[in-house]
Design goal:
It contains 16 helices and 22 strands. It has about 500 residues and is of the alpha+beta class. Among the domains are: about 160 residues, FAD/NAD(P)-binding domain; about 110 residues, no CATH class. The strands form six sheets. A seven-stranded mixed sheet has the order 8-7-17-18-19-15-21. The relative contact order is 0.19.
Length: about 500
């Protein structure tokens, strides 16, 4: 029997759920406050074409292969993917440069060449330990819609050697210091905490497994990451999904123990057999979607928020050293930016990520490059915007990059910068945070809201929901939600 499903939000989590539901024959209506689908996959139109100003590469490709296969499609027939042999090029102020590669042997060889044999052996141990952690917790936790402590314990008991590698009482930063004698390598791998909005000092040591998501390969998409959103949207439309954009949902309505529909900004009421909310779950607990659902995801109301960012997007001729697709320019002092962020300050000595969108995989050097540049920032809950923020951020960013030999030949204005307050406006209840609640403590994964709620036909998807932030995790979350709807017979 076909059911009517309303999805609030057209991010990757919402699109993934929508296409699976529609393929199964259900009537799906997606409502989004923005002008187009994609959520945090955003673009800025430059003179040389669209510029990614959100996620820049695809990781954990099997997540998307499974999604497309579940709707009888082949991702490679819709999207041109190029595997990047260099995961990232890393630069330190002392002139050291290091490439990490998409296979262990090359990375180990390069680390040995740059940092010495001892560091090469230390990397091998870290690589093997993080791989074991990833493999141990992939299915029972990341691919589980509702993981719990008992399931984590069972997973570790099946592989007793993993217990010591979890280092349950250690932060990621302290764990990395025990792996690497060279602080630059600890600095490098500590940065992976920021992939889920955390910091090395507060993220648990278990977060070392995040590195494995990238170590297993990164792919660029011809046409940019926005192409993924457009393809999923088109596949939805082909299966009968209707989209309503530039429209906010003001209330999720409930009758007894079930949701019955939503209200939108013009006063229209839409009925539904089930609702999927693809937004920051904190919106629900704050009452932004009405009193009927404000008991959902209660913990998010007071939970500490994850990192925000200053994100530049522009195209320009550039004088630069040999850029890869992903480039990381490290701070002078490894933890200085995180110390500033913890005090609610704009970092003055930041590590800066530069995506040179037109570089990589033997691409010819263009005359004009498209760039996304990211600096970590505190969310608005830790720091209020100040009038001089743009000028300050511009000076910090480009003066620092000039020290590494990067000079951009163009005028760069406010329109090229997305700031925490801009993210807060675009994503309600987020406080500008890009990753939901902060991943602090050993059991932080278990404290995230899951796709299942106490209301039997209300489900949550997106980066603020387990299994967490990032495009593959959001896509996986959408798939898990549909699987749970099926298992709980919501769709029958």
């Amino acid at each position: 029997m076909a059911r009517k499903i309303i999805i609030v939000g057209a991010g990757i989590g919402g699109l993934s759920a929508a296409v699976k539901l529609a393929h199964a024959g259900h009537h799906v209506h997606v409502i989004d406050a923005g002008a187009q689908a994609g959520g945090k996959i955003r673009t800025h139109l430059g003179s040389s074409g669209p510029i990614d100003i959100g996620p820049t590469v695809l990781t954990l490709l099997p997540v998307f292969q499974r999604l497309f296969a579940s709707i009888d499609e082949d991702i490679h027939e819709h999207i041109t993917l190029t595997r990047e042999p260099i995961l990232a090029r890393h630069w330190w102020p002392d002139g050291t440069m290091l490439d990490l590669h998409d296979n262990f042997e090359q990375s180990a060889t390069e680390i040995t060449a740059v940092f010495g044999k001892k560091s090469g052996k230390e990397f091998a141990k870290f690589y093997n330990d993080s791989r074991l952690l990833f493999d141990c917790f992939d299915k029972p936790v990341m691919q589980n819609a509702r993981p719990n402590l008992l399931q984590m314990m069972r997973a570790t008991l099946k592989r007793p050697s993993v217990i010591g590698k979890m280092k349950p009482l250690s932060s990621l930063g302290s764990s990395l210091s025990s792996y690497f004698s060279d602080p630059r390598l600890a600095q490098l791998f500590g940065r992976y905490a920021t992939y889920v909005g955390g910091t090395p000092q507060t993220a648990p040591a278990l977060m070392s497994l995040i590195w494995q998501a990238e170590a297993r390969g990164v792919w660029t998409i011809k046409g940019g990451m926005n192409r993924l959103a457009r393809v999923l949207e088109q596949l939805c439309i082909e299966r009968g999904v209707t989209f309503t954009f530039n429209t906010s949902v003001t209330r999720i309505r409930r009758s007894a123990d079930r949701v019955v529909g939503v209200d939108v900004t013009d006063g229209t009421q839409h009925t539904a057999d089930a609702v999927i909310f693809n937004g920051d779950p904190r919106s629900l607990s704050q009452g932004d979607l009405g009193p009927d659902v404000e008991t959902i995801a209660r913990s998010t109301k007071s939970a500490k928020r994850s990192l925000s960012a200053y994100v530049w997007g522009f195209d320009a001729p550039v004088e630069a050293a040999n850029l890869a697709h992903h480039n990381v320019f490290f701070a002078d002092r490894p933890n200085s930016e995180f110390d500033d962020i913890s005090r609610g300050l704009m970092p003055v000595d930041p590590t800066i990520y530069v995506c040179a969108q037109d570089r990589g995989a033997n691409a010819p050097t263009p005359h004009v490059d498209r760039f996304e540049i990211i600096l970590n920032a505190p969310p608005l809950s830790q720091r209020a915007p100040e009038p001089e923020d743009f000028d300050r951020c511009k000076a910090i960013t480009f003066n620092r990059l000039e020290r590494f030999g990067l000079t951009f030949h163009r005028q760069i204005g406010r329109e090229h910068l997305t700031m925490p307050q801009d993210f807060a406006e675009r994503f309600p209840a987020s406080d500008g945070s890009l990753y939901g609640q902060s991943p602090e403590g050993m059991l932080s994964t278990l404290r995230r809201p899951t796709c299942v709620t106490p209301i039997s036909n209300l489900f949550l998807v997106g980066g603020g929901v387990h299994p967490g932030a990032g495009v593959p995790m959001a896509a996986l979350c959408g798939q898990l939600a549909v699987d749970e709807m099926t298992r709980r017979q919501i769709l029958t």
